[in-house]
Structure formats: C-alpha cells, structure tokens
Specification:
binds pyridoxal-5'-phosphate; single chain; 14 strands; alpha/beta; 4-stranded mixed β-sheet; 7-stranded mixed β-sheet; globular
Length: about 375
C-alpha cells in the first residue's frame, strides 16, 4: 500500500468508527417525488427540488431546446466566450424578482458564496457569521483570508455584542447568514441584522438557497444570494445586488473568472422554472403547507419553511432511524456532523409540491410508530 492509500484508509477507518463515513448510493429520481435505490422505489423526503420543477415538462423542454440551439457546454469562462445569449435574460429576471439593480449567475450556489465573500472582504476585514450558516459561507471567509467570528444561532443580541467589541479593529465587516437555515428550517431575523448592519456600518449577505420560490418575504438585503439548484430545479447560483457590486464581481470574482460558464441548458431551465413559479403561486405555497401538516400531525413546533428537522442526537441513531423509514418505503436521509453540530444528528424532512396530504399522513404515522415509539 502506498502512503497515500494508507492515509486514505486510516482516515476512513476513523470515520467509520464514529458512524461518520459517507458513501454514494445510486439514486434514480422519478417524476412524482419517488426515488429508486437498491432496486426499491421510495417516496423521497430528501430532495430540495421543492416544486418538482426539475421534472416539469416546460423546464425540460427549455433545457432540450437550449442544447439544440447553443450546444451542450459553454466552452469557456463567461469573461472569455462562455457568456452565451441565455444569461442576460435570466440575470435581468433575477434582479427584478429581488428588487435589485443587477444580478450575476455563478456555476453553483457554493461557488457564488465563495465568489461574493472573497470579492468583498480580505485580510483586515471581518466576517461575522451565524453559527449555523452554510459551509460555503465559511469556506468563502477562509479563502478570503478575512478574520471570522461566529454569533450564536439567530441571536442578533450576540452579534451586536461582537460588533460593539470588535468593529473598530476592522476595515470592513460582512455579516453572513442563511435566510432559511438548510438543516433546521428556521428563518433568520433579517430585520434585526439589517438594523445592526446600519448601526455598525457592516454589509449583510443573506443566503436564500432554501427560500427562493418557496418561502415568501425577506427584507431588502443589499447582498441577496441563492441557488438555481433547489426550488428552481436546475443548477447554478446567483447574487442580486447593486450595479457597482455586480460590476466589481465581474472584474474580481475568481470562481466567475477562472471557471467555465454554466451549460446553456441549465440557464434555460432556470428561466423556464421561474416562469412556472411566477405563473402559479399556489404551487409555491404547497411545500410549506405539507410541512405544516406534518408538524401538526406529530405535535412538533409549526414549520416555517419546507424543512423540518427531527433531532436524534448521535450519528448512529440518525442512521438507524433513516433505515427504519426506508423499510416503510420512505427516503429520509440522516444528517450527521460536520453538516450539523456534534450531538445533533437528525432526520431532515424536506416537503415538496410532489407530496400529497395522504403521503404526509402516512409518513407522520410511520415516524410516530417507528421513530418516536408512540402508538
Ligand atoms: C445548497 C446550499 C448552497 C449551495 O448551493 P448549490 O447550488 O447546491 O451549490 C448554499 N447555501 C445554502 C444555505 C444551501 O443550502
């Protein structure tokens, strides 16, 4: 065995011993919210395709048409020749939707956050992050070389105390938070964070990856990023912001400059999906309705987004619960550290427009019997 393979094997063994090893399971997704895994057809509560738009006929047709007209790939970075004709309309549309002057689309939401954070801050600046903010916001802060402080989850009082103590020591301060927290489903106190940003001359970046299309509202935040890969059913990330900020991104953001543009099909599919979302508000409302049926059935705190966590503690407990639900015909992924803090491994339920009220009732019944041990 080479030292490289010995290293990999010993790391894996250590992960295995703590129930933290991960592996890829081949999963074929079907049109109506089902997934096929190990030859079994399971009703999935683990897709972020909240509106099932990845399967929508108009969205698929737009993607196919884009391939026929513009080819399979973009061919280069957008700054070179990859800025194909489908980008401008999508960006204008995102800016209009979010009420900003401009928008920029990136290769993914993960890349968008790295691009935004490293363009706006660096050494001598501070990133102030909610403790449960998404991993890619933290990655951006690290890559940017900025100092990093974390405030307690959804605790603007703690953020305020950290600003009062530290603001004077830094040139610029960027406050970063999820708008809808990806593993907890709760909402950030954006109005409070906006007020703090105003008082301390800080900038606020809100990550709306799980909000766009399915959770209404949201304050007028100057830096609104999100993804085209979840409720929009396609792939890519975006930032909606002022014209000068977007122009600076075009000149400085390394994930934009040094990476190939999105394939035309992804851009066309996103635009078509936004058409569907705008045309049918009742579709956008359905995931949250379903989540509320579930929390009501089990007496859990009322859902405020399509994401409902059931915290079980240790990684092994979450894995066992996920396997139990699989035997009942449901796909509900176990979420373990480091995705969530140690001791808070959980089942994470994501409700979508593909689920019926009857599906949710069956799931709640299975959770009540098999996981919560109630009759
Ligand atoms: C999924 C997610 C991202 C990353 O978006 P991708 O388009 O999947 O790369 C960023 N932020 C949050 C909060 C997310 O949940």
């Amino acid at each position: 065995m080479t030292s490289l393979d010995r290293f990999a094997a010993s790391e894996l063994a250590a992960l295995e011993a703590r129930d933290l090893r991960r592996s890829l399971a081949e999963t074929a997704r079907e049109a109506e919210g089902y997934a096929v895994r190990n030859g079994r057809r399971l009703l999935s509560f683990s897709c972020n395709d909240y509106l099932n738009l990845s399967q929508h006929p108009a969205v698929k047709a737009a993607a196919a048409d884009a391939v026929h007209r513009h080819g399979a790939g973009a061919g280069a970075s957008r700054l070179v020749t990859g800025n194909h004709p489908l980008y401008a309309a999508l960006e204008a549309r995102l800016a209009r939707l979010k009420g900003t002057e401009a928008a920029c689309v990136f290769g993914s939401g993960y890349l968008a956050n790295i691009a935004i954070v490293e363009t706006l801050v660096g050494k001598g600046d501070l990133v102030l992050a909610d403790r449960l903010a998404h991993a890619c916001l933290y990655a951006g802060a690290r890559i940017a070389g900025a100092s990093l402080l974390r405030f307690r989850h959804n605790d603007p009082g703690h953020a305020e105390a950290l600003l009062a103590r530290n603001r004077a020591g830094f040139r610029h301060v960027l406050i970063v938070t999820d708008r809808v927290f990806s593993m907890d489903g709760d909402l950030a106190p954006l109005d409070d964070l906006m007020a703090l940003a105003g008082r301390f001359d800080a900038w606020l970046l809100a990550d709306d990856a799980h909000g766009l299309g399915v959770v209404g509202g949201g304050a007028k935040v100057p830096l609104q990023m999100g993804t085209l890969s979840k409720a929009v059913g396609s792939y890519g990330g975006y930032l909606c912001a002022s014209r000068p900020v977007i122009d600076l991104i075009h000149s400085r953001a390394r994930p934009l400059i040094f990476s190939t543009g999105l394939p035309p099909a992804a851009v066309a599919a996103a635009a078509a999906a936004l058409d569907v979302i705008e045309a049918d508000p009742s579709l956008a409302a359905r995931p949250l309705l379903r989540a509320r049926e579930f929390t009501r059935a089990l007496g859990l705190p009322e859902a405020v987004s399509p994401i409902v966590p059931l915290i079980l503690g240790e990684a092994g407990a979450a894995l066992a619960a996920s396997r139990l639900l699989e035997t009942e015909g449901f796909l509900v992924a176990a979420i373990r550290p480091p995705t969530v803090p140690p001791g808070t491994a959980r089942l994470r339920f994501a409700f979508t427009a593909a689920h019926s009220a009857a599906d949710v009732a069956r799931l709640a019944e299975a959770v009540r019997r098999r996981i919560l041990g109630r009759s």
